[in-house]
Amino acid sequence: MTLELPMTSCEMCGSEKPLFTAQIEGSMLSVCENCARFGKVIAKPKPVIPLQMKRAALLSPKTTPPEAPRELIVANYAQLIHQAREKLSMTQKDFAMHVNERESLIAKFEGGKMEPPLDTARKLEHLLKIKLIEQHTDEDVKVIKSLKGKSAGGLTIGDVIKV
Question: What share of the chain in percent tops pLDDT 70?
Answer without folding.
Answer: 66
